[in-house]
Amino acid sequence: MESVGGGLDLGQESGHKGNGKARANGKERKVGRQDNDGQEAVVDVGALKKEMPKAIKLEKELLVAKSDASEFYKKFAKKAGLNAAQLRKAAKAYANEDVEAAKRSAEQMTLILDECGA
Question: Which residue has the higher pLDDT, 88 or 28?
Answer without folding.
Answer: 88
